[in-house]
Design goal:
With about 400 residues, the protein is α/β, with parallel strands linked by helices. The chain has a domain at about 280-405: Rossmann fold. Helices cover about 35% and strands about 20% of the residues. Strands 6-5-4-7-8-11-10 form a seven-stranded mixed beta sheet. Strands 14-13-12-15-16-17 form a six-stranded mixed beta sheet. Helix 5 (about 175-185) links the parallel strand 7 (about 160-165) and strand 8.
Amino acid sequence: MPTCLVCETPIEPFLSFGQMPIANGFLSPSQVADEYFFELKVAFCPNCCMVQLAKLIDREKMFHENYAFFSSTSVRMTAHFKSFADWVGDRYLSDSDPFVVELGSNDGIMLQNFAARGIRHLGVEPSANVAQVAVDKGIQTVSQFFDEELAQNILAEHGPADAILGANVMCHIPYIHSVFCGVKRLLKPHGVLIFEDPYLGDIVEKTSYDQIYDEHAFYFSAASVRYLADLHGLELIDVLPQPVHGGSMRYVLGRQGVHRVGDAVAHLQAREQMLGLKHSGTYEELRTRVEHSKDALRTLLSDLKQEGKRVVGYGATSKSTTVTNYCSLTPELVEFISDTTPIKQGKLSPGAHIPVRPYEAFTSEPPDFALLFAWNHADEILDKEQPFLADGGQFIRYVPRVEICP
């Protein structure tokens, strides 16, 4: 039986997605024979309330020199990270000559805002190809995994940090205790750790099961973050809901007793009580809804195929890997996936081996239906695709329910 990554309590998986490939492992036809698979299982810890993967894979299989995710390809995310950086600067960087560290800084989409203001900064990005993009922009970046040893090296070279940031990255790190030890070592006495990740409450409410894949070791709630923080002499002092990634939560932590705890923390705890996030029965119910969603999507696509309709995927996302493999979607049901990321184009989707083609393939021969894998960017996409909709094209969503829209 696996044990909790936070408190070492024995845990039982409440849902298995079966054999799954690396979510961002888009591959060429010559790589298909050697493709890696593992059983994707998710579990709830009744002691610390952390929802987590029950089986982990080596981080080097996920984050490497060919990592295929670049945050700056989204206009909406660029605006979000500017707002995030401005908020941090206005609220937490009151000292002279402040220093900001970002974990999982990707292509520098957030740190570029601090760099533009002349604020000392350092990005920590383990995927070398992505880190190089940031370096080429003039953003100070090291291509390593963050842990207590690296924190000590940063402290020796740059001094303590006013703020340590993370965006959709803390949930990726199963060796979380080493990270928190490093954070505590690197922070100034009044410094803050601020991170945002997909929020467990939104996953439960929306049945957004595609948030579950290999990179996401944890699915945070206020309860689990408070437990984890307390183990390291930190406390949760603020929470701010965010609309990105289909529903995220921004958590602000500081050293215990240094900062006032905001009212929003108690309000979120009350919401989590209402959602039942501390009870195992909630996750059994989630499993049932996930299974129903799978059946509904598979049935819809099979019916459209029988009617002679063309369906194309929109957005070769990591999340789409969970959906295509769990729902047994094939190129017979989804002709190809349209994506604007050059490194993914001409590849096959992980596991399901659906061809990934440039966006121009979508616009040159518009399908009857577009399966919205990038549903978390729905507003941005629907605005962009008004010509497709005007010509009679329709989108298929599967979060929070399977439906044809608009």
